[in-house]
Amino acid sequence: MKEGTDMFIIKAVLPVAESFGFADEIRKRTSGLASPQLVFSHWEIISSDPFWVPTTEEEYLHFGEKADSENQARKYMNAVRKRKGLYVEEKIVEHAEKQRTLSRNK
Predict the structure, then answer these.
(1) Closest-CA residue to 38 (of 56, 53, 58, 18)
(2) Rounded distance, CA 76 to CA 50, Å?
(3) In whole angstroms, how far apart are CA 62 and each of 32, 74, 82, 84?
(4) Domain ranges of the chain
(5) Elongation factor EFG domain spans which residues (predicted)?
(6) Quick check: pTM over 0.85?
């Protein structure tokens, strides 16, 4: 808290890819009372491989068949591909069941 005022200063590190729309979201959720100031600090390489899939029995046991935790490198890579209009391999429906919600009245 800044002395003599009712202002709070919060410092945090946020990935640039996730900072788009952050200022609008903060203002929206605080009804315009908060305004963030974003400053580039540093960069670092994401250590995970965007094309990694579990292959060994141990990896299947630890991560599951689909590797349930989302791969951050793949997430960022797919976001850039979508933005540029390139092909992104993703399944829209994985396990679908036929559902009939409208019945025909005769």
Answers:
(1) 18
(2) 9
(3) 44, 19, 30, 34
(4) 7-43, 45-89
(5) 4-50
(6) no
